[in-house]
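Q: How would the structure tokens look for this protein?
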Amino acid sequence: MPYRMLGRAILTLPLALWAACLAPSAWAQATAVQETEEARQVVVMENEFWRLSVWPDTGGRVMHAVYKPTGHDWIFEKGGLFCDHVTQQVWPGELMNAQYDFRILETGPDQATVRVWRTIDGKGDAAISGVVFERDMTLKRGDPRLHAVIRLKNPTGEPRSPTPWVQHILYVGGRKENNHYFRPTTTGIQEGWTEYSGTQTIRHGTEFIREPTAGWTATTNSVSGEGAVFLMSYNDLFWLYNCIGNLTTEWWYDPVPLAPGAAWETPVTMVPFVGLKSVAYADEKVVASLEPAYQDQKLSATLRLLSAVPESLPAVSGELALLTWPEQKALKTEKFDFGEVGSRPVAKSFDLGALTKTQEAVLRVKLSSAGYQASFEQYFDPLAKEKEQFGQVTSNYRLAKPRKVKQFELPAGATVERHEQSRVLLYHGLHTRYWGLDYAFRYLDVEKVQQSYHTIFVYGDQLDYMVSSPTELLQYDLVVLSSVSAEALTDVGQAFLKLYVEHGGSLLILGGSSAYGAGAYGEGDLAAVLPVKVGGFFDRVEIRGGAALTPSGELGESLFPRWPRGDTAPRVYWMHEIGGLQPGAQVVMKAGDRPAVVTAQVGQGRVAAVLLTPWGVPGDGQTGFWEYRLWPRHLASLMNWLMCKEGGR
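A: Here is the predicted structure in token form.
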């Protein structure tokens, strides 16, 4: 029977018959069988909650997903669950509609698992060519969740660094209307939806979520109450995204460094439900909605909870607190006891009292059950709709972005491998050519310069080359970071650099439009090896008329010998403003009274932070430092010091 006819048939079943269908039977088992559907070989996965059709010849994606509690097929023509991509390729890429290999790993009755995979051609792209993109999908008896594992393998003899991207194209509830999207961000829960008015399609809300604060994203139907939460690893997550007008739910992962023969995997869980029209919080145990209502300058709220696992959660209790924002002064706290929470939502409403129209607030929820605790909050502005109507910024409300934990290890005693002819890794950002690095390298005995170019486009800041392990990074005598953002480096790249420096590496950091504060250097592992405290995003300051650069201290005089003084001194016109020096840091060059070049010993390695930028227009009789003919020689001297070498060539 065609899937949409199946859905209609389910919806027309009498209640007693529908209950009988969900009673222990063949449907109460998890099964996976190969069938012919629409003249193609497919794999049908089924349990009492789902009937899924996996099409190996169309990207191995789920092309039909009938949610049995409502009978709705959530997939429309050309849609699908688990459309595979890598960000190195523009949508739709080579995977989405490709022929996949497949294997049924488990046929039931307790669990049914299907594996699909495809080797990426990549057309010579060194980041992805030859990588195997593999996906396992599992249904379990008595479990409404769809479990998946995304796996990347590198069977090639060269390192690879693919960036996986997962896309779902679906309409929850079986219709495009009334689909809403909820995403956790540093500015609170961001909602998006499409308004259909005659022939017009009006999109509401932000599509790109560049600062997610948790590993989930949700899609709901505001009329039927159907919905799904997609749970993924926050530690692997880069961005969340919805192409709102095209009904997609998507996310990007951090780049995945793969040494030859290595593999990586990450879990994804889709949790379906009925009875929530919004989502304020989700994790592996609970899905929650929190809906404030404001009338006559009084605030109330309704909290709804459901279990994200097949088992009910026992004795769920907690509190809902109303606080002023930004003062965070407690106005009212309500204790609650939900008792047992199962897969059907349970609700409690709270009268939170008076709140003036001009008072912004935060509703903070704490949950507790046996072996489980969670908390979340939701921002509320009584004038939000009016402010949005007039295009005003609604608030300065902001949550801290949780730190990811990227754990990598090096063998005991590992250290940088020094070479007579130096090997250099250059992270090449905007305006790198003005630094004179090519000329500086000529003063050194350099065997190899490996370039990694920084690009900025719709999928965010990226590098076209990434080392596959911290061990590989130890093969370089020097790493130069030239105006490349922390986002492009990713948390993985920052973790690699930290290990590299601590184990004897040499790191030179140059200023620019994507460096220091502007590059968010103060927010990750890179901050741990910097000799300076990074300023804010707008940390570049103009020095009108320029400031003369002069060596500072004994080390500065030795690094920059015979540096011009007085009116002939090279000058800087734009530079980075910092928040101070780290303990043990040493200023080796100043711009007037400002630190211009700062060095430090970090672990077994050395770091130099050049706070200058090669920008500006020198006045009559002045020379910008980047135009000074001996600047490359002095830069080479600094590089030699970093690599513990004497002088230049």
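The chain has a mean pLDDT of 92.

The longest strand covers residues 263-274.

Upvote if useful.
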